[in-house]
Amino acid sequence: MHLTAINDKNIELFQQLFRRVDEASLLLKNGVFIDCNAAAIEMVGYPNKESLISHSPENLSPPLQPNGKLSVDEIKRHGSLARQKGTHNFDWVRLKYDGSSILLDVSLTVLLLSGEEYIHVLWRDHTERNKKRQIESVNQFIEKMGDAHLVLKNGVYIECNQAAVDMLGYPNKQSLLNLGRENFYPEFQPDGENTYEAVRKQIEKTRKEGTSSTHCTYKRQDGSLLHTIVATTMAIVDDEEVLHVVWRDITHIKQQEKALVESELRFKVLFNNSATAVLTFENGSYTDCNDAALRLLGYSNKEELINRDHPLSPPTQPDGRNSSDKGDEVLAHAYKVGSHQFEWMHQRKNGEVFPVEVQVEILTIN
């Protein structure tokens, strides 16, 4: 048997600590609770100390434990293990005053006080411990997320993950937290709307619906712009409004879109200003052309050419083949190899037939 002896000088100190400790603390003697602190009374919902003490552990337990064994037998087993080792920890289901059950993490320590055996019992709410573990797991998960997670309260970010720090270009979390939102706002959004007004609308929508998402552009510490998709969720914590904000960085997408627009603009400039006749062909029809093509074919505008009611080629080509059949053949070859150059007889609006050299390029858009 292993006992922890407490001499007479330390009994008073032990009693003071016993009553002041924040954890639920009880004393067992001869199989009956003889004392407990306020935390123990509160944990199991008893009205006062007198209603809790003088009970044996089995009187405060359901008949069976989750492992299917009788509580009375398990109490004896755990008590025996505590005496053998001096201390012993285990999970236990206990009944509260209202009859509901609570899962506890129980710690037993066998003590020798004035020559008599006592068992010091600590109860820890397993439910709360699991909640803390779950919160820790969620926090660890969020820390590993590539998206930025931030908590906003009273217009100030009070918590964030490392992704938010990296995304905004701050050296560490401490330098980012407790800064007002204005530190992250450019004056205007890309569509010209004032950023404060755009954010105000999003928060109002979140208040009404509980959650919302939108596009928003923020400002990094170095002044560069951060384009994001923002998801906002609202909660009331301790009677105060708290926003959980998630940013997904789409700056690279915006840059690609900008590059595509610029590329399209360059193409249009080259397309429209080229001295060579250029036409676009899609799904068996001409869809666009430049001014040089209009002049070459004798049409006054694009709509007239695109919506014409007569063909741009004569019925047959110089080799005697049907223009439609041969046209399908050269287009099929162009689709196969990506481009194709050939000679062709075209027909102007006035019916005049003339020879041209055609270069077909296959383009993939979107």
Structure description:
This protein is α+β, with helices and mostly antiparallel strands and 366 residues long. The protein has three domains: 1-126, 2-Layer Sandwich (Beta-Lactamase), CATH 3.30.450; 145-254, 2-Layer Sandwich (Beta-Lactamase), CATH 3.30.450.20; 273-361, PAS domain (Beta-Lactamase, 2-Layer Sandwich), CATH 3.30.450. 37% of the residues lie in helices and 32% in strands. The protein contains twelve helices and 15 strands. A hairpin with a 5-residue loop joins strand 9 (211-219) and strand 10. The radius of gyration is 40 Å and the shape is elongated. The model has no long low-confidence stretch (mean pLDDT 85).
Task: Compose a concise summary of this entry.
Helix content is 37%, strand content 32%. With 366 residues, the chain is an alpha+beta fold.
Topology:
Blueprint (H helix, E strand, L loop, with lengths): L3 E3 L1 H13 L3 E6 L2 E5 L1 H7 L4 H4 L18 H15 L1 E9 L5 E13 L2 E10 H19 L3 E6 L2 E5 L1 H7 L4 H4 L18 H15 L1 E9 L5 E13 L2 E10 L1 H23 L5 E4 L2 E5 L1 H7 L4 H5 L16 H15 L1 E9 L5 E9 L5
Parallel strand pairs: 1-5
Antiparallel strand pairs: 2-3, 2-6, 4-5, 5-6, 7-8, 7-11, 9-10, 10-11, 12-13, 14-15
